[in-house]
Specification:
Two copies of one chain form a homodimer. Chain A has 179 residues and is α+β, with helices and mostly antiparallel strands. Chain A has helices at 8-24, 69-76, 106-111, 114-117; strands spanning 34-39, 42-47, 52-54, 59-65, 79-86, 91-103, 121-123, 129-130, 137-140, 145-159, 165-170, 173-177. Chain A is elongated and about 55 Å long. Strand 8 (129-130) of chain A pairs antiparallel with strand 12 (173-177) of chain B.
Chain lengths: 179, 179
C-alpha cells in the first residue's frame, strides 16, 4: 500500500477519514481533540468530545454547557484550534476554526442518552468554587445545552515519517510547508 | 491504596509526579503536552516535548526553534496553557502559565544529541511554503535554539472518577471546583 502521507491529496483524505473515525469510535484518537481558545489571561485548552465531522460543510461539532468558560471565551474570540494527535499514525492535525455557538437546540438535547444529559446544567456551574467535590447538584438543564459548530478555516498537518512532512489546506488550496 | 484524587494534597502530588515522569519517560502521557498560545486569528495549539519540570520553582521547560510561530505568538501574548491528558489515570491537567523566551543558551544546545539539534535551524524556517517535502535543508543552527520557560500561574485538574472532581491550585491555595 502506498503511504498516503506522501501526497497532499492522500494527507487530506487521511484527515477527514480520521475525524470520521473519531465520531464513530470512542477509542479513536480524533474522538478527543484538544480545543484551544483565547481567554482573559492568554490561551486556554481542554479535551473535548468530537460529536460530528462534516467534510462537505467543513464543520466539526462539539457539545458543551453554555455556562462553561469556553463559551464565554468563544463569545470574546471565536478563533479556535482543534488539535488531534494520532500517535500510532505519527500524525498531528491542527484545525483552525471559527466557532459558532448554537443554543436552544432542544431536539438535539432530547435525543441525548440520560447519562449524557447530565453534562449540561448542574448547580453551581462548572468551575465555581465549592467546599467539597460532593457540593454539586448535577441536575440536567436543556437550556444549558449548547452546540459548538466549528467552521474549519485551515487544516495544518505534520506527519512525523521520514522525512517529516508538513502540509496546509486552506480555501481549497493544498501546500507543503517546511517541517 | 487510598485514591489520591479524593484529596487536594493528593491531587497536587499526582500532578507533579506525572510531570516528572513525563520528563523521564518517553512513553508517559506528560511527555507530550499540548501547548496553546494566542495567535493573530485566535488560539493556536500543537504538541510539544516536556524537557523539565521544576516543582519548587513552578516551571516547565520546552525547547523550540526561535523562528517558529509559537515564539512569535508568545512574544505577542505570553499567556499560555499546557495541557496533559492522562487517559489511563482519567486525569486532565491544565497548567496556565506565563512563558518566558530564553535565547542564546549555547551550553544547553551543545549538550543536545546530534539528532535533537536538527530540530533547531533549517532553511526555510518551519511553516514556510515549499514546493515539495524535500525542499528543505535541516542544517542545525545554535542561534535558532530557544528555551520556553513556562512559569505556572495556576493548575486546574479534572479527574473523571466517581464522582468527577475538579480542583484548582493557585498562589499556594488549593480549592475544589464544580466539575
Amino acid at each position: 500500500m502506498t503511504d498516503p502521507f506522501t501526497t497532499l491529496d492522500g494527507t487530506f483524505e487521511q484527515v477527514w477519514q480520521r475525524l470520521a473515525r473519531g465520531v464513530a469510535d470512542r477509542r479513536a484518537p480524533a474522538r478527543h481533540p484538544v480545543l484551544a481558545t483565547v481567554g482573559a489571561d492568554g490561551a486556554e485548552a481542554r479535551v473535548v468530545v468530537l460529536r460530528a465531522a462534516d467534510r462537505a460543510a467543513g464543520t466539526l461539532t462539539i457539545h458543551t454547557d453554555s455556562a462553561s468558560a469556553k463559551v464565554t471565551e468563544l463569545r470574546g474570540n471565536p478563533g479556535a484550534t482543534l488539535l488531534v494527535w494520532d500517535e500510532k499514525a505519527k500524525l498531528q492535525i491542527r484545525l483552525r476554526a471559527t466557532v459558532e455557538i448554537v443554543e436552544g437546540d432542544a431536539d438535539s438535547f432530547a435525543r441525548l442518552p440520560d447519562a449524557a444529559r447530565a453534562n449540561y446544567g448542574g448547580t453551581p456551574p462548572s468551575g465555581t468554587a465549592i467546599s467539597d467535590p460532593g457540593a454539586h447538584d448535577p441536575a440536567p438543564d436543556a437550556r444549558r445545552f449548547a452546540v459548538l459548530l466549528a467552521h474549519v478555516r485551515e487544516i495544518e498537518t505534520l506527519h512525523l515519517g521520514t522525512p517529516h512532512r508538513r502540509a496546509r489546506f486552506r480555501d481549497g488550496v493544498a501546500q507543503w510547508l517546511a517541517p
